[in-house]
Design goal:
Rossmann fold; 8 helices; five-stranded parallel beta sheet
């Protein structure tokens, strides 16, 4: 099969990471010969703030203070991940980036640079209230307080929604919107059907 590029977007707690991993399993089933690079932005961020450099420490202070890491560092982290890991023979699955129109436009230049044909945006659409309940239940380290959770959901509305709007209006992207407030397996079946154009 042709090499595929998928960018998963949605609120924190929408289940986009779960669905990205399920799609990776489907890609392996359909094309066991091609490697897959999974750009899980959160993992790269956590690795970055665990190091001792000056910029790393400044970034860690922002994260621990409940702030949003600015685009300067965010773009560097995922562009560096692409530069260091892409070999040109793999499927690409991105989860957690981009978060702003500016980042989406930079990601777009990466899609062009790496000659990624027919990129697909998978937008897991969920309500704020639904995600707030999910994040409160899972007790992850970066979701320690309801204030922190609400701040993350505020960023989606102020920043990420703009990037989603931008992608909706770019003809070169296939834009797939999925209702994420359903059972995981049902969501996965719909994503697979839509991204692989099945009946």
């Amino acid at each position: 099969m042709d090499l595929r590029t998928f960018i998963f977007m949605g609120r924190s707690g929408s289940g986009k990471g779960t669905q990205a991993k399920l799609l990776i399993e489907e890609l392996k089933r359909r094309d066991g010969a091609s490697p897959i690079f999974y750009l899980e932005t959160g993992k790269f961020f956590r690795d970055y703030v665990s190091r001792d450099g000056y910029a790393n420490k400044l970034t860690k202070e922002i994260v621990e203070g409940g702030g949003r890491v600015n685009s300067f560092i965010a773009i560097w982290i995922w562009t560096n991940a692409l530069v260091e890991n892409l070999r040109g023979n793999e499927h690409l699955v991105v989860d957690g980036s981009p978060r702003t129109i500016q980042e989406a436009q930079i990601m777009d230049t990466a899609v062009d640079f790496y000659k990624r044909a027919n990129p697909t945006i998978v937008y897991i659409n969920t309500s704020r209230a639904w995600c707030e309940a999910r994040l409160s239940e899972r007790h992850r380290n970066d979701d320690l307080t309801i204030e922190h959770i609400r701040r993350k959901l505020d960023w989606f509305e102020s920043d990420v929604e703009g990037a989603i709007w931008w992608y909706r209006n770019q003809n070169k992207y296939k834009f797939v919107e999925i209702n994420g407030e359903r059972p995981i397996a049902e969501i996965n079946r719909e994503i697979v059907a839509k991204v692989f154009d099945e009946d």
